[in-house]
Specification:
Mean pLDDT: 91
Shape: globular
Helix content: 25-40%
Strand content: 25-35%
Number of strands: 14
CATH topology of the largest domain: Rossmann fold
CATH superfamily of the largest domain: P-loop containing nucleotide triphosphate hydrolases
CATH class of the largest domain: Alpha Beta
Structural class: alpha/beta
Low-confidence stretches: none
Amino acid sequence: MSDKMSLVLENVSKSFVNKKAVDKISFKLDKPGVFGLLGTNGAGKTTTIRMILGIIKKDSGTITWNNEEVFREKVNFGYLPEERGIYPKIKVYNQLLYFAKLKGMSKENAIEEINFWANKLKVSEYLNMNAEKLSKGNQQKIQFMTAIIHDPELIVLDEPFSGLDPVNTEIIKNIIIDLVKKGKYIIMSAHQMATIEEFCTDILILNRGKTMIQGNLKEIKDSYPVNRVVIHVNEKINDIIDELKLKIENHKENEYVIKINNEDEAHKLLDKVMKKKIKVNKFEIMKPTLNDIFIEKVGE
């Protein structure tokens, strides 16, 4: 196996009964890291993921991993599906062992990995319980474990944080960061745009099966003009904002998020605030967030 792995999709399409679910999409992962696959419900994300994993067949185009056509039997991938699928009436430990063996692990190796990951995910105390007795968040951590236990080369995470509290979110986030450090290739699909911004270098936004925007996230954001300013002051400045005919997007205590059309507007605001000798604790001119870009591209 070469050091440099790559997943390449070229002009991949899939239809279901006259409906184009995925329409000629192309992208590639040629270095370790997290790739963001975004879109509204029904945009074609899950269909794309299932084709990459070899679960469903594409109609046209090519999908290769390390220059070889993707077949379900051949590839060492891990998958956390959006619809969780652990067996409610079976002991967690037995399920993990079963899934590990399905992935070709020896019993000894499987037991070692189950204990390692259970400890890391803080679920060791639940291993001998039936899955239905676990909270939704802990069930999800068990499912996450089944996706990574066999040390896959490529990992697909569909909504990995839905249903997790902040503590468990942090645990999974740290594991994802470690996996990237270990050279893993990860595709992440999520509705929380802030999460995608935190992890993903490159993204693809799908809408009704078509690519709306794709590429390096930083470059995409840099191509947009500034659109808001954040200012934190020691007293109210609503009168100055009104005078400049600017619009407040958000305001809590004395921190204002204000819509602007250009940097000049931001500097005029700062000038007026300073002239009134109001203390400024924070002043930041901002580019659109991924959420802004997503809404603009995909529509409300």
